[in-house]
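This section describes the prediction task in plain terms. A model, or a person checking by hand, is given the sequence of a single protein chain and must write out its three-dimensional structure as a string of tokens. No templates, partner chains or ligands are provided. The sample shown here is typical of the held-out split.
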Amino acid sequence: MTAAGSGTSANEVALADALQTAAMRCGRLSDEQVRSLRRRRRSAIAAVATAPLAMVLLFVGGDWLVGRPTASTASTGVFATRAGERSTVALADGSTVSLNGATRLRVVYTDGERRVQLVAGQAFFDVRHDAARPFVVRTRASETRVLGTAFDLDLTRTQVALAVYRGAVGFEPVGAPRGVVVRAGYRSAVRDGVAAAPSRFDPVLPDWRKGWIDTAGMRLDDLVEVLDRQKGIRIARPAEPLASTTVFGRFRTDHPHQLLTAIGSGFGFTVIERQGTLTLKTTH
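The expected answer:
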């Protein structure tokens, strides 16, 4: 609303100027009409002047809740998307972050460090190189430290999955004495406080940004959490022992019901839809 209001006010300023100039040249304005136009112009200028302040207060005091692809620029703040929504954020240093659905992150830049906290969901980071200021992404279970690279972090209930697309990333569990270095074309995951040895993947293949997922041995309950980021139907977290079933393969994510039904045929569960929620039920 603020951005739209500022554009409208700017138009009013230009219109008031044009009307006043043209009419005065023709000698068709009374003194009272001139004063009225000047009051309108001052009011429009005041609206333009206060619009940026209103936007800053909104940004500092609340969350950016993004309903469609946007490009914001900031050095501090909170960014969030709802299920089924995606957004790209341009940070103050020229880095960009693409947010998947149901994702939330906090950004804080200082003179000595660029720090991001991934609170929930999944984000793809394209980090501009800055040797003087490391770029650090923390989750509840991991810390990722880079100078300039491109990588993806996926935070689910039981793991933090990392895939590196350019450069190299230091990846370590929170509280662990050491982690692993993951280079372009490799991925790793932190589970139970341990970083897995990096394994190869093909960074050319489409990922979540194009509606795909490579499960690479992901637990079924983590896959359900990823699919639940889509808009529309909700998916209940499965109970054990179904929850810890591991799934391998590349799948489309835009039709969760069909995908889970296909997986269920091989793992012994059915998908039941009731009141807008999918539930997985074992068949034996």
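For orientation: Residues 2-61 form one domain.
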